[in-house]
Amino acid sequence: MTTELKSPFLQEAQARGFIFQATDLAALDEAMLKGPIKGYIGFDPTADSLHVGSMVQLMLLRLMRKHHHTPVALLGGGTARIGDPSFREEARKLMTAETIQKNLEGISKNIHQLLFSGEAHGPTPLIANNADWLDQLSYISLLQDVGVHFSISRMLSFDSVKSRLEREQGLTFLEFNYSILQSYDFRELYRTQNITLQMGGSDQWGNIVSGVELIRRTEGQQVFGLTAPLLTTSSGSKMGKTAQGAVWLSEERLPVFDYWQFWRNTEDADVTRFLKLFTELPLKECERLGSLPGAEINEAKKILATEATALCHGREKAQKALATAIEEFEKGHTGHHSSLPVKEIETSALENGLPAFKLLALTAMTTSNAEARRLIRGGGMRLNDMAVQDEEQAITLKDFVEGQLKLSLGKKRHILVRLKP
């Protein structure tokens, strides 16, 4: 039976599909009706950019701000030194302090763009780093303080732990401590900033519940946990993963046009759901667009792509990506003013004819010659929208029109290759 919610934040979160589990949804609803609260989500710096898989969490924080609650992004500068084992097949590789710092700077840019931009009104978002307190901990003091409140048998019962223990890789003691540190984070944020809600993906449920329980035991207070579903597409593939790799939020990792194209290629059955989750369009408009018949659904996909890209990269770049797509794919133009990503190569590289597979590698469309050969054999490469059948096909100056050619890999990746002046 669906809980009848009264607080505007939870009402909209439920209507848009953000709510999967909650420790006490009725009590959280009541607390939000009494006045604004603070809620946080943690982001570990496992790379120098977040990817689309983090967008649900970022949109939840934006939604909190819209409804006048304070969103808090917690950077995992401390927990990154352990690595979250939740549902992973093997332990994460430990990172150096320099790598962690570089990654923190990268994901901070993503978070600032998503939380501080746009037309959102409400409390100013907060950003914290758990290294500020975790790096100061004494191991013996930590054991005395919180160790007594954690049951090994209960921790072993979490699905995220059981899934690892069932594999031959096992679970290291280092990783086993992750849940304790995440719980400590929640208590620290509760004590110092009166943060009473932790949110995250459903893979974080066990860790979140542990934090709620720790605060109940040590502070005698009720706080709340809420998870969003881990998304897959209608065809069953993991959200944010493509044949070319992760869909990064940083423009340095993935060109804006490619980001726009990712959303434009949404499966028909996912359009309504993704409009609700990844744009801030009114719910009725999401329903209308998602129910457009036949080929008209492509117009809804353009709106989804443009709105999602505007949140991540700004409205101007999103509109430019839309204009490029219309120009490139609907009108068939590839003019010098196209906003497709550009790669420049030396004229001398083409004097004796450059094999097609080497062009892919030279322009960084692939990471190796072997990968380039495999993709061409699979029919994935096109030059000026013409399929390349032979991986050894010689690319010469004659293939360039006014000093450039359009190079495509699959349906989503497109660049202009230009000759260096």
UniProtKB/TrEMBL annotation:
Alphabetical UniProt keywords: Aminoacyl-tRNA synthetase, ATP-binding, Cytoplasm, Ligase, Nucleotide-binding, Protein biosynthesis, RNA-binding
Sites where the protein binds ATP: K241
GO biological process, any: tyrosyl-tRNA aminoacylation
Annotated GO CC locations: cytosol
CDD domains: TyrRS_core
UniProt motif 'KMSKS' region: location: 238-242
Segments carrying motif 'HIGH' region: 45-54
Molecular function (Gene Ontology), one example: ATP binding
EC code: 6.1.1.1
Chief location of this protein within or outside the cell: cytoplasm
InterPro entries in the cross-refs: aa-tRNA-synth_Ic, Rossmann-like_a/b/a_fold, S4_RNA-bd_sf, Tyr-tRNA-ligase, Tyr-tRNA-ligase_bac-type, Tyr-tRNA-ligase_bac_1
Reported function: Catalyzes the attachment of tyrosine to tRNA(Tyr) in a two-step reaction: tyrosine is first activated by ATP to form Tyr-AMP and then transferred to the acceptor end of tRNA(Tyr).
Family: Belongs to the class-I aminoacyl-tRNA synthetase family. TyrS type 1 subfamily.
Quaternary context: Homodimer.
UniProt name for this protein: Tyrosine--tRNA ligase
